[in-house]
Amino acid sequence: MRIEDLRVFSVLAQTRNLHRVAQKTGLTQSAVSKILQRLEAEFDTRLVDRQGRGVELTAAGRVLVERAAEVGASVAQTYAEMAAAKSASAGRIRIGVVPALLESALLPVLARYTARESAVSFQLSVQVSALLFDELKDGQLDLALCFMPDMIADEELQSDEIGSQRYRIVARQGHPLAHLPADPRMLHAAKWLLPMPGHGLRQIVDRYFDDHGLAPPQAVIETDAAISLLTSLLRNSDLITMLTEQMLQTWAGRDLAALPYETAQFESRIRLVYKRKTYLSPAVQQFRSTLHEALTGL
What we know:
Largest sheet: 7 strands, mixed
CATH superfamily of the largest domain: Periplasmic binding protein-like II
Mean pLDDT: 85
Number of domains: 3
CATH architecture of the largest domain: 3-Layer(aba) Sandwich
Radius of gyration: 26 Å
Structural class: alpha/beta
CATH topology of the largest domain: D-Maltodextrin-Binding Protein, domain 2
Low-confidence stretches: none
């Protein structure tokens, strides 16, 4: 039994038409028919019934489709684990991070780690959480540092809570809101610089206003870039946004001030995510422990 034959049969189960299978797989219709005949001969049973221009799966055909899906998942898992093993043998750690945690959490750890571990190299992916999860499941990453509102609800992934990140609402020094009492309604009417909808930071902002019975604020500027890269917009306008407390103390936060709003309302848990039941090399496990030690208590 050939894996490629099972893949073609799975496409046939979806399309129920030999001509469409040929279009989707790049094979000739004759080649598709031969694959079907080969499978039926191998199992000594009919897998499809012809009906007009299409086909319908028999009971045996439905069983084979289920097994083909399991085989396909197993093959994909094997390739992912072999990629991880190859990366591990080269002392390579593949880590992903959301933009908001890059400078405040990951880069300081990387700087210290690479100074003492010269035999280890890193592949770094900076993406939103959803894309990092896809890269983990595809075997392209070993670890991902993300914000998570709760335990991750994905059977393929698991995660460790290793700290939390606290944000401040920030604006240029001398901003009209800087010396006024905290008022969610005035904050709602302000001009916001925000990440795109669905981003973890955007969800924190929306949740704050929802808790105060207000609709999400209107973003004057939305971006898929790290907010820390755009702080010059704040220094030269009345825009407001959110930065981590650590980022506010860096060069990116110069000439910016935190507005007088309760910080406990703007906190998100940091989780280190990795694929369930996959190989983590000694180098990856050691760096995972280093991240735990460095970020616990943030």
